[in-house]
Amino acid sequence: MGKTNVEQEEGGTTLLSLPKHVAIIMDGNGRWGEKRGLSRSEGHFAGVQAMEKIIDACFDMNIKILTLYAFSSENWNRPKDEVNYLMYLPIKFFKQKLPIFMEKNIKILATGNIEGLPKATKRAVVKAVEETKGNNGLIVNFALNYGGRMEILQACQKVIKEIQDKKIEVDQVDESLFQRFLYTTGLPDPDIIIRTGGEQRISNFLLWQSARSELHFIECYFPDFDKKSLAKVIYDYDLKHTHYA
Ligand code: IPE
Ligand code: IPE
Ligand code: MG
């Protein structure tokens, strides 16, 4: 978290401690739809629209990394039609948005078991990551087919393999070595994790990486979460982390 000089006021300077990495559990799409007499899928569609605005807001606010929990490894248990729709949304989203991401120097990352996605979804995600890999502006990291326990287990398996292959010694295994084997390798841990939708749980999200994150549970459903709601969270964070003289 850097101290950024965001505002030059007459008679003083306002300092703002920006979180570097904001992660969002985008929950409440289904209930948002149901509450309006719409389908859950219409809720997911509205969720994507809200997500686009939140990406723009992070871009405007100079946040460096935004991680978005889009589909958990448990979400396969939902009705087939809903899963199919959720797997179609990234295809449509990246097709529409990739040129804009290139224009805005946005880099796309994917965190999760990408191999386990349906072919067309995987292709769209891999293409977005590939095409934007040279960009060095805002990082938008999609947690897709993501499960924190599975991520840690896979990291353990990889570490054990390295030991068996005599590439590393057991007592070399410390936090910094271990996290190189996680999906999020190279990314700093999130400063803030926001969950919309009113539930106060973590749902298998970034279990290792959230060790020191600030948790913000927001009542509104994700489609109603907007730039103003995000700015409020960032403002609260700033109040706690900036020492105003
Ligand atoms: C979150 O919204 C989006 C995904 C899990 C993909 P939900 O679909 O969980 O919406 P609610 O929590 O049932 O309202
Ligand atoms: C968490 O929401 C996962 C995503 C937002 C992608 P869920 O709705 O799937 O979580 P639970 O089932 O309520 O814990
Ligand atoms: Mg939910």
UniProtKB/TrEMBL annotation:
InterPro entries: UPP_synth-like, UPP_synth-like_CS, UPP_synth-like_sf. The keyword Metal-binding applies. The keyword Magnesium applies. Substrate binds at residues 28-32, 40, 44, 72-74, 76, 78, 195, 201-203. Mg(2+) binds at D27, E214. Its cofactor is Mg(2+). Its EC number is 2.5.1.-. Binds 2 magnesium ions per subunit. Catalyzes the condensation of isopentenyl diphosphate (IPP) with allylic pyrophosphates generating different type of terpenoids. Homodimer. PANTHER family: DEHYDRODOLICHYL DIPHOSPHATE SYNTHASE 2, DEHYDRODOLICHYL DIPHOSPHATE SYNTHASE FAMILY MEMBER. This is Isoprenyl transferase. It comes from Oceanobacillus bengalensis.
